[in-house]
Write a structure and sequence with these properties.
CATH architecture: 3-Layer(aba) Sandwich
Order of helices and strands: HHHEEEEHEEHEEEH
Shape: globular
Radius of gyration: 15 Å
Helix content: 25-40%
Structural class: alpha+beta
Largest sheet: 6 strands, mixed
Distance between the termini: 42 Å
Number of helices: 6
Number of domains: 1
């Protein structure tokens, strides 16, 4: 039997690898901009590997221009408080430590259930680390997880970057794309 989160890990993997059926399913309720962004994966996909174990990384997306460790979360609640589970806190801390050692931007992909349009939002973990190259630019652009007064992370779906915007942005990374973020 498949664990509940595995469905969304597989969905995200299929989208990032440019699986035609997955992209067609996703764009059914998307607007024209979101549809165009998801369709970019058909011509410029990532190689996506499902990570074994629970180091706070579910997927690793790799392409000639970027590599992203991704932790996938899903919920019907638009706000996820990491303080509800020490495991979530430990995962985030471990992911940030591993990513900063290799100068990779840690990505949280949050899938809100029962949403029309783009249901995915992406975030990164706040850090004072100096990321390098394109990852530095990406880190500055990406929304960060909120931090509560007691130091716990909070992921608010509405504050995230649409996955479609993220895909459009990464497709422009070689500065030859005709698309522009508004």
């Amino acid at each position: 039997m498949t664990a509940p989160g595995d469905v969304y890990e597989r969905e995200l993997k299929a989208l990032l690898t440019g699986d035609r059926k997955a992209v067609a399913r996703m764009v059914k309720t998307c607007n024209a901009w979101e549809t165009a962004a998801y369709n970019l994966m058909l011509r410029n996909p990532f190689l996506v590997i499902r990570a074994a174990g629970s180091l706070g990384i579910d997927l690793v997306a790799i392409r000639w221009d970027f590599a992203f460790p991704i932790e996938v979360k899903s919920s019907s609640d638009p706000v996820m408080h990491f303080s509800k589970s020490q495991r979530l806190v430990d995962q985030a801390d471990a992911m940030l430590d591993e990513c900063t050692r290799s100068h990779l931007v840690p990505i949280y992909a949050y899938r809100l259930k029962s949403v029309h349009g783009d249901p995915w939002r992406v975030f990164t973990i706040p850090s004072d680390h100096d990321f390098r190259g394109r990852h530095s630019t990406l880190y500055r652009k990406m929304p960060k997880l909120d931090v509560s007064s007691s130091g716990n992370y909070i992921m608010r779906w509405e504050n995230g970057m649409k996955l479609s915007d993220f895909l459009m942005y990464t497709d422009m990374s070689d500065y030859t794309s005709e698309y522009k973020l508004e």
